[in-house]
Every structure is written in C-alpha cells, then in structure tokens.
Specification:
This protein is α/β, with parallel strands linked by helices. It has 6 helices and 4 strands. Helices cover 42% and strands 16% of the residues. The chain is globular.
Length: 153
C-alpha cells in the first residue's frame, strides 16, 4: 500500500522496525499476581522464539471498550509497527468479539499468536463480566422499571 505509493513516487521509505506485542490482561486489581505470572509466561515464550517484543498489560474487564492498552495496541498495528500479537488465551484480548479483532489484525498483516490454545475454566471472570454488563445495562444504579401500556395494535 504505502510502499507501492512511495515506490511509484520515487520516495525512499524507511520501513519501521516491527515488534511482537506481548499483551496481557486481567479484570481486577485482585488478580494482579495472575497478571504478573501471565506476563512472565508470555515474555519467556517470546524470548524462546527470539522475538523482539514490547509489553502492553492492563487491568480492565475484557468487555470494556475503553481499554487504553488495547487502543495502544491497535494504534501501533495501524502504524505498521506490529509484526505479531502474543496472547495467552483469546479472551485476554477480548471477552466477546475476538474474531473482529483477529480480522483487523490479519488485514493489517499482523499475526495473532495464541500461546495456549487449550480450553480453560474462566467462570469466575466471566461471571464478573456478566455482572458488569448487567450494571451497564441498568445505567450503573438500581432503577425502577416503568411499565408502559399501549393501546396500539
């Protein structure tokens, strides 16, 4: 894309050096120790593959659309600075909608590498996410439900 345009116009483009982004996430501060262990496992894996990497980690729900770390990762990918994203499980990058993100990364030429593809139990964190969804749906506070009757057929 940009390379073709630069070639056509005669500009010598310097390609940015691409890195692997180690992305680790946990939902709550109570899980901080788990986050640290997750990062250690991912970094050890990256080092075993001789990847040049940077780490993005965050404490936020997998359903939170305003995660600063995820937005930073996406911005780096759109800038052409990411070769691959290394995650431990699919749900680390997104609780719901993983396939959308995977498609975006593929279209940007970024490989998503999942370190552990085995299914795992995550009922507790999923329950927390469901509670957050319910809280958001209620507007963050208890509301009285108004019943509106209509004569329309």
């Amino acid at each position: 894309m940009q390379e073709d345009l630069d070639s056509f116009t005669g500009k010598l483009a310097v390609k940015p050096e691409k890195v692997t982004v180690v992305y680790a996430r946990c939902s709550t501060a109570k899980q901080k120790e788990n986050l640290e262990r997750q990062k250690e496992r991912l970094m050890k894996h990256a080092e075993s593959k001789n990847y040049k990497y940077m780490v993005i980690d965050e404490i936020a729900s997998g359903i939170n659309e305003k995660r600063k770390g995820l937005h930073k990762l996406l911005n780096l990918a759109f800038q052409g600075k990411v070769e691959r994203v290394l995650i431990e499980y699919k749900d680390r990058i997104a609780r719901f909608g993983y396939e959308y993100l995977d498609s975006i990364f593929r279209n940007l030429g970024v490989k998503v590498e999942i370190m552990d593809t085995k299914e795992r139990k995550y009922e507790e964190e999923l329950a927390e996410d469901i509670m957050k969804i319910l809280t958001c749906a209620r507007g963050g506070r208890k509301k009285k439900i108004a019943v509106v009757e209509s004569n329309a057929i």
